[in-house]
Design brief:
Number of strands: 2
Order of helices and strands: HHHHHHHHHHHHHHHEEH
Structural class: mainly alpha
Strand order of the largest sheet: 1-2
CATH architecture of the largest domain: Up-down Bundle
CATH topology of the largest domain: Growth Hormone, Chain: A
Protein name: MFS transporter
Subcellular location: Cell inner membrane
CATH class of the largest domain: Mainly Alpha
Pfam families: MFS_3
Membrane topology: Multi-pass membrane protein
Strand content: under 5%
Main location: membrane
Number of domains: 2
Largest sheet: 2 strands, antiparallel
Radius of gyration: 22 Å
Mean pLDDT: 80
Length: 430
């Protein structure tokens, strides 16, 4: 991991986005506190959250085209500028002390869409700034960064909010400025030269090409489906733990400490991934991650708040092993020219179930109880374990060397033998 950080361009990308991510983690707490205080309506809080997530989801697929079509450094700078403006609008509204739906909903929509575009741009740029053997360490550092900001961001935002409602939003605006300043200093080109030269593509044609690439490659689509189920479990398990803690009479401060501790477990797990990847074969590490995750969720099925809290921390600790192995392998397999669009398709597949996890788990805990709901989640992760263990695609392609290209009958054949080389010139020029 230190090797990746010794790369100055990667260090700038990572550090700048860490500051912005710190603000984004705190934003979730600050927006709920402020909207609830000025509107007095939990439904309004739900509306703001839904609009934010809706904008993120709606922007995911076109974000892939943007990341592949335009210079990624400029995309990052543009998104950071727009996001800083949106956060400043929220700071102004909070300073005034009134909830005006039009500017607030517009601002949170810009932030949600910006997160989709910025995240894809950064992920797609990583293989251009680090060596292939450093990909796992780089993505592991990203995972650790996400958990670390999850530990620090919410309490920091709550403290700033106590000093002044506008402060966490103003701080978030500054964080985007810092991220943009760091990205502007990256000197390495963040896109590979386009082999086929400049092509003026219609957006929907380019998006369709990325979706076709995603659908044509077994490892990418299979791991995306398995990750979608795992993300549903991870998102739902947090709510189960909160329900068990609150039901046992634990104060809100205890709930906060438990969640922060779980994020700390995730951070430690992410930092351990490079060490694990050097010692455990990729497929075995995926199976082990799913198995330990299922056992961790089963701890919540006992109905014990203490066991549930420990299990949730263990679940977040093993999750990065899965995420880093899959993300690094997909970065090796996907050509740079379609990396953003394939990442967008993958993100859409994995994020949609996670969006509905809180609602689904909330209904289940109300009808069958938190312990039984945890049992259902453990069974889902057990299904991921079995599918990962028996999948020939995952077993053979999780860690094998990059494909050799052959020429059969004069046509390029990719490593999956599909005969599709990622570029449809007729569609691109139509």
């Amino acid at each position: 991991m230190s090797g990746a950080l010794r790369n100055p361009d990667f260090a700038r990308l990572c550090a700048g986005q860490a500051v912005a991510q710190l603000g984004s983690r705190g934003y979730g707490v600050a927006i709920m506190l402020w909207v609830l205080a000025v509107s007095g309506s939990a439904a309004t809080v739900g509306l703001v959250s839904t609009v934010t997530m809706g904008a993120f989801t709606a922007a995911t697929v076109p974000a892939g085209w943007i990341v592949d079509r335009f210079d990624r450094r400029r995309v990052m700078l543009t998104v950071d500028a727009c996001s800083a403006t949106a956060a400043a609008v929220l700071a102004f509204c909070a300073w005034r002390g009134t909830f005006d739906p039009v500017p607030v909903l517009a601002a949170v929509s810009v932030l949600g869409a910006g997160w989709a575009v910025r995240g894809l741009a950064e992920d797609a740029a990583v293989p251009q700034v680090v060596e292939r053997e450093q990909l796992g360490a780089a993505y592991g550092l990203f995972e650790a960064r996400g958990y670390a900001t999850g530990v620090v961001g919410p309490p920091l935002a709550a403290t700033l909010y106590g000093l002044g409602a506008a402060l966490p939003f103003a701080g978030h605006a500054v964080s985007f400025v810092a991220a943009g300043a760091a990205a502007s200093r990256v000197r390495t080109p963040l896109q590979a030269p386009r082999v086929h030269g400049p092509v003026v593509e219609r957006p929907w044609v380019a998006i369709r090409e990325g979706l076709r690439w995603f659908a044509a490659h077994p490892f990418v689509r299979t791991t995306a489906a398995l990750t979608a189920v795992a993300e549903f479990v991870v998102n739902g398990c947090g709510l189960v733990v909160v329900v068990l803690l609150v039901g046992s009479g634990a104060p809100s401060s205890t709930v906060g400490i438990v969640l922060a501790g779980a994020y700390g477990g995730g951070m430690l797990g992410a930092l351990a991934v490079p060490w694990l990847r050097r010692r455990v074969p990729a497929h075995r590490l995926l199976v082990l991650s799913a198995a330990l995750g299922a056992l961790a969720v089963l701890a919540a099925a006992t109905g014990s708040p203490v066991a549930a809290a420990a299990g949730y921390a263990a679940l977040l600790a093993v999750t990065p092993s899965w995420s880093v192995v899959v993300t690094a392998r997909c970065a090796e397999l996907v050509p740079d020219e379609v990396r953003g669009r394939v990442g967008a398709a993958t993100g859409l597949v994995t994020s949609l179930p996670a969006m509905f996890a809180p609602l689904t788990v909330g209904v289940l805990t109300t009808t069958v109880g938190a312990a039984s709901t945890a049992g259902v989640l453990a069974a889902l992760l057990g299904g991921v374990l079995v599918a990962t263990a028996v999948s020939r695609t995952v077993r053979l392609q999780a860690g094998e060397p990059l494909a050799r290209r052959a020429v059969l009958g004069g046509e390029p054949v990719d490593e999956f033998g599909s005969g599709y080389d990622g570029v449809d010139r007729a569609d691109a020029l139509s």
